[in-house]
Every structure is written in structure tokens, then in C-alpha cells.
Amino acid sequence: ERIYLDSDWGQIASSPTTNPEPLAGPDNLAYVIYTSGSTGRPKGVGITHRSAVSFLNWADEVFPEESRGGLLAATSVCFDLSVYELFLPLCFGGRAILVENILSLLGLGGKEEVSLINTVPSAARELSADGGLPLSAGTVNLAGEALSADLARRLYAALPGHRLYNLYGPTETTTYSTFTHVPSDVAATPSIGRPIANTQVYVLDRDGVPACTGVPGELYIGGVGLARGYLNRPGLTAEKFVPNPFAAEPGARMYRTGDRVRWRGDGELEFFGRIDHQVKVRGFRIELGEIESVLSSHPSVREAVVLARDEGAAGQLLVAYLVPAGGAGVSLSELRAFLQSKLPAYMTPNAFVTLDELPLTPNGKLDRKALPAPGAAAREASPQAEEARAPGEELVAGVWCQVLGLERVGREESFFELGGHSLLATQVVSRVRELFGVGIELRQLFMNPTVAGLARQVEAARRAGLGVPLTPITPARRDEELPLSFAQQRLWVLDKMVAGSPVYNIPSALRLKGPLSVGALGQALTEIVRRHESLRTTFPDVDGQPVQVFARPAPVPLPVTDLGAVAPEGRELEARRLAEAEARLPLDLSEGPLLRVSLLRLAEDDHVLLLTMHHIISDGWSMGVLMRELTALYEAFVEGRESPLPELTVQYADFAAWQRGWLSGGVLETQLQFWRKQLADAPLLELPTDKPRPPVQSYRGAHERLLLSAELTEAVRELGRREGATLFMTLLAAFKALLRFYTGQDDIVVGTPVANRGRESTEALIGFFANTLVLRTGLSDELSFSELLGRVREVVLDAHAYQDVPFEKLVEELQPERDTSRNPLAQVFCVLQQQPAPRLETGGVSVEVLEA
Fold first, then answer.
1. pLDDT value of residue 8
2. Residue 107 to residues 99, 127, 181, 733, Cα–Cα distance (Å)
């Protein structure tokens, strides 16, 4: 790179070209700062003369003249902070003291001449700990990282009488955009303040509506300080620099920071971190910065960072990275107890990793990508945990370790406190069943959530002779016609009734940002279709009955639609229009294919992958399998490696054949007896409506979003814990109480979906396994909520014990009165989504599931 600087300070240009723009003109580039993008590709951010002049005029007004007598210039000229450090004293009178970097103060002579310091909190912490802060510094400006109240107090103690400012600003908005003076008696985390001169800030929700005071949203910045955009990156510029609907002047823009903030009552902004640092783990939205703040307040912790990492079958786990204070050791059990006393249980990290130092980028900011993956030891049980005593306990403990991704567990530790949840509990129960050959039910794990407790239940079942014949799923012969599963049979019939309908399409849109290899992506999709026979299956009609036909593996076509001809500001809208059109396009069960893929190219490093599958070959769990395999295969193929995935032992068609054989005779009759008794004379749910019910369902609906506060969510969880119920059970009880209020009925029937993957061999398959459970509960005015929750808990656990009966078989057996205006048996569903849309990176490309 070459640096261009003229004597009027008119232009600093960091550019790989040798021809800078003319110097004259307020809207010409004053400088271009190169920053690293998420893909590692540098982004040149162009700042104009007008923006730099406005910024320096503001700094001249805010920071007193005496602070410029020895303004420390410790930043590279290639970094935007150098505009403040060099040109504030040069333009308005003063002196710049040049040092190689801020930590050079530790050995700098003449430190008494330094009057003002700009740095990041982590460097300030180092300087204050090692006596590197010059006592002459009357002003200290901190930015670039979150500032804690503890560090602010430490700095005031080290530099009596100085003034401390907390500032905030992305590179795209001329160094700083907001600031605040931090008082010496600060008690809570300092805000990032108010906007600087000629700057406007907005806190908007996901729909672009201004958020109320106290409600978090994304920070947008407008005004004179806004950059012109990214050098030679029109697509990225259009994505990040969006039209400003709140500005009076035409053509005004604002920058999407991707940072999460909220307005405080005093008119200042409270910073929470990146939008993409807010994560959803087991259905809970978690602010990682909140956990980091509590961890950092522990006396044995100097610094802390928390990430959510995808750990395969165990799902997303919270991992805390710690730097001990003063070289002392950190007791992880003590930290866990400390966190649990201040935060909800679901915010306690599953793993703790101790580091000597946190990894930093060359600019002194945290390098999150350099944080190591936690080893199994980082998630192990408490050191005081008692080992398993008997062979049965050892086997059960082995299952827990496999499902939870732990190295070991104590015999008396709770499955749910170790990070387990209902989805993982189902896997534990299925594996224990297969391992011991006994009919353990999900309720028994909830009732006995320790290794020792569950092992006792297994032993009691074996002694009582309660083992059930769990015939393993084995490959079926392919030289004869194979039956459809019960669920597939019903969808095939429905498709015949409403031919050409997209109602049972499962559409997905994946945003792929980064240097995408279209060849490797097509290769990964082809390998997935080869692995999963269900994706090559069609269902033609032979004499009025469906049969399965399996196509031979073949390359998957991946058509690419280039949106380059669309104006940059309209590409996002066009991509969503095309995604919706793709989702509405029917799939032909007879001819196939039942998986359709295409790629939209918005820019060189921005694509949207559209995948549409018919429900007859897929379900929600399957989408998770597809995502995991797609990312693993793409990464391997980009690097020139072979597929890292093991071959599948069975296919979905094998499950369908097994289901037809196993779910018959005495096994089926035992299950049906439960449901006949449970659903005898089950009533319709008569919800009041403002319009007449149409004679035939239209499948046209709408949705309403309601966000529950963290406090309310934790209160609901705590209520469930006190009553021995899961979050789903607690919410279902509340929902049923609400339905009773609206309907006046004392007998409430609600449906809910289950994954229905009770055999370990089915967990890695793509196919239509999902089933519907019908949950019926009696209510009355005399019931307390605690009593209602107890009833709901029993109903849910009983239903899970008999979940093998397909919903289609229930309808066939119970013969409810059919009505084309309503669903049979259950007209309302209650669903707790425990698997959030993943956000991950593979092969240098970030992958995000788009909501539509």
C-alpha cells in the first residue's frame, strides 16, 4: 500500500493504486482505511474531507486546549484513530508525541509530557497494572472495546484528577460517533454516550421501527461523519449503507453497525455487543456480554470472553475463556456457583478454558477466531463428582458422555444441570433402551435425572422382566417394492386430493457470505444426495397405490441466477422475491426431483442458496442434518479433502419397512389401547373467530411476534423447576389455561410435534420421521396452576411413552368426524422450538439461515 499525505492535511489515502483522487473538494476522499472483513478480504472505507473536518471541529470543542500539549500519537497512520492523534494538535495548536505503540509507555522517558491518551480498555488495563500510565495525562479516551466500571475506577485511582471518556465509533463513520464522560464514582457499566456533533443515531428493531427507551435494537448511524462507502465494493456498500427514512435531505443514508444497543432513560446509549454475539441456546436468547460482565466481576478473573460454539450432537454450548487475575488459579466449581447466584441457569457456560492472555488482532482488539476449541476436559463434571460404582452406572454414564460431549460425569450430577435438555434426553432414553433392552421411558429420566437414579430404574426394569422386543432396523431388500411409512402414506393421499399444491414444501434460504466456491458447493450437495436415498426417491402411482422408486446417484444441478444487473439497493428485495417464488413452486411426487436447489448471486462474495424439499422426504430434524453435512462437506471439498462423513448404515426406506413390521400385532395394540382411552370422545376446540370458518381450509395465515423479557422467561423456568416440569410443560399449561379462557371448555386438546427418532440409527438420516402427539387435559375452576401443571406434566410424559403410533394411524383407528374446515383430533398446536437457526462459518464462508 502507498500512503498519500498533502501539506494541508488534505488527503491521507491508503490505497493499492498509485493515482489518488484530486485533493480539492469537501466530498473527495480524505483517506481510505483498510479493515479486515469477516472473510479476511480487506475492505477499503472511504472518508471524505467534509467528514474529517466535522470530526476535528467537534474534538476541538470537546477536548480542552491544554490536553493537546502532549497528545500521544501511538496509532499507525493506517488506522483511523491517527486522524485524531495527528491532526487535532496540528490543526488547532498543540504537540503530537510519537511512539511505536501504546505499550511503549512502559519504557518511555519523559512521560510527564503526555497530556492525552487514546487507547483500548485492554491496553489501559495493562498500563495501569504495570505503572505505565503517565501521571501527567489529564485526559484518557477509551474506545474499541467494552469498558467496565471496575477498570474505570482503577484508572481514576491510578490518575487522580484526570477525565475519562468512553467513546464509540466504527471505521465507517470517521473514528468516533458517540461519547460520554465517565464519572470517577461510576458503579455500573458505562454507557457509550450520545452522538457527537453533526451525527444522528437510531435504535431500530428488526423491522426498521425505532425502539422505545429500554428496548434493545440495532444501532444505525447517519450524519456528516458517514463514510462514502467501501472502495470498489458497490454491493457491500448498498447492504451496509442504507437509505435514511428519518432524514430531511433527499438521498441521505445511514450505516448499519450490527451492534446491539438500547436507549437509557437519561438519553444515553447502553451497548450490549454485536448482534451476531447475541445467541440462542436451547431456545433462550442470550447476551454473551452479560455473562462476560459477571465473570469479569469475580476477583479471580482478570478478563473473560464467552462464545457459543456448535458441538455437534450436543448442539450449541456456551464456552467461557478466562485470564486469571494476578496469575492465581481459578476454581471452576466456584465460578459456576458464582454465576448461578447472579444469572439464570441457562446462562452458565458449559465449558471453561483458562488462557494466559486473550488473543488480539494487530490493532489490539480481541481476535475471537483465534480462541481455541474447548477440550473435553473443559466440560467435565465437577472434580468432586463421585465416580460410577456399578457396571450399570458405568454404561449409563457412557451414554451421557456420548450425548453431552463430556469426558466424564459424576453419578449424582443432574443431566439437565450438565447442559441436557428434552431433545438430548430423548437421545439418552433411546440409547439406554438399545443398550440394555429395557422399556425405559422419558418420564423416568425426568424423575431420576442422575446417572445413579437412571441406572436404578434400568435395573428395576430388568428384574421385573419389562424388556420390550426392540428389533433393530436393518437394510431391506431393494429387489421388491418397499412400503411407504405411515406418515408418507398420509402425505401421498393429501397430495392426490390437492394436486399441485406447495403446502407441504419445506423451503430454506441460506445466506452465504465470503469467497464462495460454487464447484465445491455443488459437489457437497451431490454427495449429500448420494448419501441419503430419501433425496433420490419418487412416489409414482401404480394401480392406485404409491410405490417408492430410487434414482441412481447423479450430479445435482445448481443453476445460478446473477442479480448483478439489478441496482445494488434492490438486490436484497429481488432475492427475497425469488426465494418466495421458489418456495411456492410445487414439487411433483411422481416425477421428482423432490429436492430442488438454486443459487442467487447478489455480489462476488454474497450469495443466497435456495433449497426446497417436499415434506414426504424431510422434516425439521432433517434440516439440521442437512446443514451439518453441507458445512462439513463444503469445507472438506474446498480444501481438496475426501468426505469426512461416515457411511450411513441404514436408509429411510429401511425405517419405513421396519416400522410397518414392528408396529403391528401386540406392540401396536398395546399402544393403541392407551390412545383409545386417552382420546375417547375428544372434543373439537371451539375458538371464537371474527369471521365465519371457511368450508375448506385455505392455509393462508399470519403471525404475530411477542418477545418475553429475560426476567419473565427465567421466572417461568424457575416455576417449572420447582414443580419438576420442563419449560415446554410449563408453557403448555399456561397456554391451555388461556385456551380455556377463550373457549369456556373444560376439556382442552392441543397437538405438538415430536422428532420421533427413538433409535440411534435414525438420528443421522434425512427423512420424514416427525410425528404429532395429541395432548388432552381436563381443567376446572377449582384447579390451581400448580395442579394444572402437574396434570399437564403427566399427560406429556405418558404421550411420549406411546409416541411410536403415527398420527395417521390414530386418525384411522379413532375415526373422528372428518371436517374439511378443521384438522382432525387437534386444531391448535403448541411448539417449543429448541433448535435455533444456526449461524456458522465453513471454508471461509459464513452461513446464516434467512427467515422468510
1. 36
2. 11, 11, 29, 66
- Beta carbons of 34 and 78 less than 8 angstroms apart: yes
CA dihedral 515, 518, 524, 525 (to 10 degrees): 130
3-state secondary structure of 715: helix
Torsion angle in degrees (nearest 10) through CA of 51, 55, 57, 60: -160
Please count the helices (runs of H) and the strands (runs of E) in the chain.
Answer: 21, 34
What secondary structure letter does DSSP report for 28? S
Element (H, E) at 201: strand 199-204
| CA distance linking residue 524 with residue 519, whole number of Å | 9
* Distances 620 to 507, 611, 649, 835 between C-alpha atoms, Å: 11, 13, 21, 9
In the 8-state DSSP scheme, what is residue 459?
H
> Other C-beta atoms within 10 Å of 785: how many?
13
Taken in order 386, 391, 395, 396, the sign of the CA dihedral is negative
DSSP state letter for 155: H
Cell triple for 290: 452479560
Using CA atoms, how far apart are residues 515 and 512, in angstroms rounded to an integer?
Answer: 9
The rounded distance, in Å, linking the Cα atoms of 286 and 80 is 32
Average pLDDT score over the chain: 83
Beta-strand runs (E) in 39-183: 42-48, 71-73, 96-98, 116-119, 139-142, 163-168, 178-182
Torsion sign (Cα): 187, 189, 195, 201: negative
Task: Say if CB 95 and CB 89 are below 8 A apart.
Answer: yes
Q: Which of 647, 629, 640, 645 is nearest to 520 (CA)?
A: 640
Q: Which amino acid is at 392?
A: G
Supply 459's cell numbers.
Answer: 435395573
The predicted pLDDT at position 415 comes to 82
**Strand pairing report for 116-119 and 139-142:** parallel
Q: What is the rounded radius of gyration, in angstroms, for the C-alpha atoms of the chain? A: 31
Q: What is the pTM of this model?
A: 0.56
C-alpha cell at 668: 401396536
Cell numbers representing residue 16 in the block: 493499492
Task: For residue 195, give the 3-state DSSP assignment.
Answer: strand
pLDDT, tens digit, 9 for 90 and up, residues 413-453: 778 767 676 667 878 888 888 777 777 887 888 888 888 88
First to last CA, the chain: 42
Q: Peptide bond before 195: cis, by omega within 30 degrees of 0? A: no
Contact assessment for residue 211 and residue 205, using Cβ atoms and an 8 Å cutoff: yes
User: In this structure, is the dihedral angle defined by the CA atoms of residues 313, 314, 317 and 319, taken in order, positive or negative?
Assistant: negative
Helices (H), 33-80: 49-62
Q: How many CA atoms lie within 13 A of 230 on its CB side?
A: 18
* Amino acid symbol at 58: W
Nearest to 223 by CA among 256, 197, 242: 197
More confident residue, 545 or 286: 545
pLDDT digits (tens, 9 = 90+) for 96-132: 988 877 766 655 555 668 899 998 887 787 777 666 7
Backbone dihedral region for residue 449 (phi beyond 0: left; psi -120 to 50: alpha; all else: beta): alpha
8 A C-beta contact, residue 434 and residue 470: yes
Cell 379462557 appears where? 741
pLDDT value at 834 more than 60: no
